[in-house]
Amino acid sequence: MNWFQTKSAKNLIIQEKKIINKFIDDKFGYHALQLGSPFTNFLENSRISNHIFNQGSLKNISFNNFSFPLADDSIDLVICSHYIEQGYDSIFLEELYRTIIPGGHVVFISFNPFSFAGIRNIFGFSMDFPWNSNFVSISTIQNNLTETGFSIEQEEILNYQFLFSDENFNFNKSMEKIGNRWLPLFGNLYFIVVQKKVIGLTPIKPKWRNSKKSTVLKEE
Length: 220
Prior knowledge:
Elements: H1 7-24, E1 31-35, E2 50-53, E3 75-81, H2 90-99, E4 100-111, H3 116-123, H4 138-148, E5 150-158, H5 173-182, E6 189-196
Parallel strand pairs: 1-2, 1-3, 3-4
Antiparallel strand pairs: 4-6, 5-6
């Protein structure tokens, strides 16, 4: 069984969907792209017209991270859910930046290495995704995104549950309260929203100096 179909994973997905749905509720456009999370449709409540998927049963496009088969400035919204754990580099981020329209957004959801998920990643010795992958810290991905040219709009760390028992999982509300208050940086998930901002040239109207009136001398 894929880990994202287990009981503990489904709890994470519920939280992920809530936060994504809240963000995309007022977003409009023509094209939205979802990268990763083949078992979940994060675009089902999106008001954007056309939805593009690169994995799962809804897959309708194939590409690698080095060259997206998408035109420049053509995508309004990208959801990257647990995609950067699969491996990413500067070329991937540059391709994202190239294809997003000016003012468009990219949403990242990923596992936090400084969390219970991070502990399982290090000591779980699992050969299954995501526990066999490389977790990237929120500060690292933020630096990479700003270097690419994106502007950070929102960020949030959430989910403080133990992630060591998949099918016997029970959500503990007390853990969320404790984590939010005392350990805000150590949630299992982080959520980042970035925007492509392009600085345009604003024409400046020249200021002309008023010429002094000349005095004409009359001959007597």
